[in-house]
Amino acid sequence: MAQRLSDDEVDSKLSGGWEREGDEIVRVYEFDSYLDGVEFATEVGEVAEEEFHHPEIIIRYEEVEVRLTSHEEGGITEKDLRLADLFDDEF
């Protein structure tokens, strides 16, 4: 199991574009069309499945919100930060 990170650890390691909201990290990606966002959400889902760590994905018109937390640990862990970095590297 991953260890829950302290507030200072999260703040120092959080990638640009991501924000902290309570026990989650959140990023909103913008797109030119709804279907571009749907395609992105599918790709995010594939990466998440490979890592066996699944975000909450909210698809809206021309934007997709991704939320990460580690429910079992009750907050943000290295798994969340790693997945955020993978999303940023891929997309």
Automatic annotation (TrEMBL):
It catalyses: (4aS,6R)-4a-hydroxy-L-erythro-5,6,7,8-tetrahydrobiopterin = (6R)-L-erythro-6,7-dihydrobiopterin + H2O. It comes from the Archaea. It holds the Pfam family Pterin_4a. This is 4a-hydroxytetrahydrobiopterin dehydratase. Belongs to the pterin-4-alpha-carbinolamine dehydratase family. Keywords: Lyase. One of its GO terms (molecular function) is 4-alpha-hydroxytetrahydrobiopterin dehydratase activity. The keyword Lyase applies. InterPro entries: PCD_sf, Pterin_deHydtase. The keyword DNA damage does not apply. The lineage of its organism: Archaea, Methanobacteriati, Methanobacteriota, Stenosarchaea group, Halobacteria. Its EC number is 4.2.1.96. Coiled coil: none annotated.
